[in-house]
Structure formats: C-alpha cells, structure tokens
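Course assignment 3, question 2. Fill in each field.
Student: A.L.
Task: Predict the tertiary structure for the chain below.
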Amino acid sequence: MQVIYNGICHLGEALEGATKVFVVCDSSYPFLNIKHDIENMGKPYVLFSDFTPNPVYEDVCKGIELFHITKCDSILAVGGGSAIDVAKCIKLAVLAKEGNATLIPPLVSKCVECDGAKMPFIAIPTTAGTGSESTHNAVMYFEGAKQTVTNDGVLPDYAILEPSVLKTLPLYQKKCTMMDALCQGIESWWSVNSTEESNEYSRKTIELIMGNWYKYIFENDDEAAAQIMLAANYGGKAINITATTAAHAFSYKITSLYKLPHGHAVAVGLPEIWEYMIANMNKCIDSRGRDYLSDIFVEISAAMGCNSPKDAIAMFRQMMDEMKLVNPVAVNRDEELKVLSTSVNSVRLKNNPVRIGETTAYSLYEKIVH
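Answer field:
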C-alpha cells in the first residue's frame, strides 16, 4: 500500500532504512526550492539526470549502469513525469532477472516478476499533471517507438506532495500539466475499466481542478496549487486502475507532429471526442450499457459544475480559450490527417466506451487540427 506524505518535511521518514540513495532528477532540479532538503537528507546519494524530456532506452540504460556501479539500495525520483518514469524503468531493470530486456519488445508487453519491496522507491513530483507518483506505468522510447512499461513492482512506495515546487513553474507548463490531470480524471470515469474506487478518484480530480484552476493559473495562489497537486495525484490513482482512453490515444501523434506538450495535445482532442460519443451512443461498447454511460456523462458534468454534458463540453472549451491553449495548425493538412488517423494508439482506444474506427478518427482529427 502506497503512503502519501504531504510536505518535504517527511522525506526522512520515507527514507528510513535506506543506506545509499539513487536520486533521479530532471533539468529543473538545480532551481527547486527543495534542493537543499534533498542535499541534506542525511544519506549518501548519487545524482542521475542524463536523460531527455522524452526519455529513450539508451538514457535509461545509462541510469541502470550507474545504479549498479554506485551500489545504491534505494531510489528517489524528483521531477516531472519523465524523471519518475526513468526511475521506474531503472528499478524494474535492476530487480527483474531479465534485466534491461524488460524495457523493450517483446518483454515490455509482458508482466515480468519484480519484487518491488526489495528496493525502497520515493517519488516527489515537481509538476501537477500525470500523477505518475501513484501509478505503476512508465513511458520511454525504443527505436523511435513509444513503449509503455507496466509492473506493480514499480509503483513508488512513498509519494511526497510538496506544492511549493509549483510556484516557479513556467505558466504554459502549469496549464498543460493541469489539463492532463483533468483529462485523466474525465477519461478514467468513462473508461470501460472504471470501478467505484476509480470513479471516486476521478470525481475528486475534477472537482478539485474546477474549484481551483483559475486561481492556480492566473493568481499563482498557494492553496490552489496544493489542491491542484492533490487533484493530479487522484488522477494518477484513477488511471492506475482504468488506464486512459481515446483522448490520450489521439494525443501521441499530435505531440510528435506538432510538438505540443502532452497535456495540451490531450486537451485539444477531448471535447471533440466527448461530443462524438454523445452523438453515437449506439456504438457503446461498455458492457454496462448505453444508459449507464449516459449517466456517467451526466455525473462528470456535475463534477465540473455543469447541468449537462453539452454544458460541460462548452465549459472545457472555455477553459482552453481563457488559457489560450489553441489547436494545432496543419501545414500539409491532407497528408497530416492521414498520418494522424492511422497512428492512433489502439490499446487506449479499447478502453474507450464508444467505438472509434479509422474513418471516424480521420473526421475527428479534421475538427482537432486547424
């Protein structure tokens, strides 16, 4: 069972029993207000930050090698989703008997044995978006292809939520990461894999974001930041149960083609996909049925403070407009739409409650890409 601590003051408790700490951190680390706390944690440590924002297999291998050389016995990840994902990959490769091969095809799609209890793992997120600190998933790239690494053994034992780290985040990054969290909350709720537990996490995610987003983005309010960080954590817990759906499936190629950050790429697609699903309930593939899904759409809308799904979609678009998060603009539209519609992540689409085929994907991208 994962332990959530509120505040960097709990770092010592989380590290109890560790003798040498492998600190995985991203480029934001030198500027963090908690850098002093980490450097004075009272344990010998080794820093590893030699990876790109979209980490590749070779980056992870450098971390694995350094972990072995320095004989560390625990991992502390400090950063955004990429840093935490790299730390997860390192832990899996170090503990699994298959080693580095667990991270690449064909083993990456299998659940290899990994006893996570053998290596304490603490995650301190420095953005409020992916909720990666509370999921058993990680993303990295191998030979240009995105790989999702999934294993219960890489779920951090401890997550430390310290909202003060959000204070100095660039504004655009705050917007993108927050919208990723909101999309995760919404998608998890309508996922075919949703449960009562995941729905409650989704509700908390959405309600906290809707109640605090404006102060967080436009006023840099401390209490709002704490609530948004908590929301992102709930969003991570929700998708850890359900996985994401069509909006995420559509986003990956948008990011690679138009260089939109992940959260921005997900958010431009979600209202179009939601609108399509409402108009095509006859294509519902959730075993719980159309009436169930219709009720879920109403519940999501209520959590957003809206009277109907139509109003909720309008509210979502209004938020995007106020934050000036615009849709991507094509250069060679016909060619790009073909690439996009044939590159949708099929695994994520299987979690979507309404069937979306390639022809439908093309028509949706026509609305998403301007």
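Instructor remarks: The chain has 14 helices and eight strands. Residues 196-218 form the longest helix (23 residues).
Grade: pending
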